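I have been asked to look over a protein record a colleague put together. Alongside the sequence sits a line of tokens, each denoting a local backbone shape. Please read both lines and tell me whether the tokens look consistent with the sequence. I do not need a full report, just your reasoning and any doubts. I have pasted the whole thing underneath without changing anything.
>
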Amino acid sequence: MAELYEDHGIRFQYPADWEMEVTDDGPVTTVSIQSPSGLAFAMVTTDETCPAPAEVADEALEAMREEYPGLDATPALETIASHGAAGHDVEFLSLDMTNSCEIRCFRTPRRTIFLFGQWSDLDSEENEAYFGDVKRSLNETDG
């Protein structure tokens, strides 16, 4: 079962048993969702100042590199909500677990949308699929 988030000009589905938190900081809104186990989470951030998507994705990767210097990253491109999204696929070790992360970012005429999903190898297939559901269901509602 899925819940529907619809506010701040975007809509997406997320697992019904995940916790959600929304934070607003002027033109930037972040919707965070976290699995009940705490081993997976995702963020969808909208920024009405429209920064360059590749720069936002690279900044997120650099922040990850500061925390996990030995991480492996591969550039990634995909289409999300009919927009070309730039980003990175990342793997790193933390607490003796392999963790995966997807960083994606794209711009629409109204905002830049940043997506970040992270999960551990303990439940990776299920949580990777949940992040895929978030990406596939994401749409602007006011664009």
